Amino acid sequence: MPEVIFNGPAGRLEGRYQPSKEKSAPIALILHPHPQFGGTMNNQIVYQLFYMFQKRGFTTLRFNFRGIGRSQGEFDHGAGELSDAASALDWVQSLHPDSKTCWVAGYSFGSWIGMQLLMRRPEIEGFMSIAPQPNTYDFSFLAPCPSSGLIISGEADKVAPEKDVNGLVEKLKTQKGILITHRTVPAANHFFNGQVETLMGECEDYLDRRLNGELVPEPAAKRIR
């Protein structure tokens, strides 16, 4: 998997990139956990997500947010990191102009950035939000959430308690025209210690079902004239 350096808004960004053999293959962008708490693109879950999409023929990119590894700049509390993610998507799209759709998958802090990117980019047709933290970050921008996706968290997550994640899911589920799938990994903590295999099994199952044309939202009810 080639190492890449591309231009971001605060300097160069370091990534790992795997193009698909198909010119029109969808793109997958993977976003890592909090930069100030040890999050990097080499996080085990981020790596496994990258490999999962790559194995299914996606053009796949993961990268380090500003200030991490060889990425230039300093931590910017989310605003700059969102700009980094947008630049990363711009960069991979510039290499793959025939790719019409993409997915974004983020873990922890990365899931918050990914959901914000989703609001700005209509070509994102699916998302995976792993261990989001609605108790820490404001998700009220999801009004409405434009795409169907998976929200998955650990049952024993003390960083993002189950009741807070459930509240976010219930809010999103009231929206018409999209389908939010929610999975809880039994006994798993925020880091999915000893449970990464179970987590990835759920993510793979979800992605395969979406790619097979399953998990389609119900059409909005037609008005009677």
Automatic annotation (TrEMBL):
UniProt xrefs under InterPro entries: AB_hydrolase_1 (IPR000073), AB_hydrolase_fold (IPR029058)
Pfam family, one: Abhydrolase_1
GO MF term list: hydrolase activity
Flavoprotein in keyword set: no
Record keyword Hydrolase present: yes
Transmembrane segments: none
Record's keyword terms, sorted: Hydrolase
Span of domain AB hydrolase-1: 34-135
Full protein name: Alpha/beta fold hydrolase
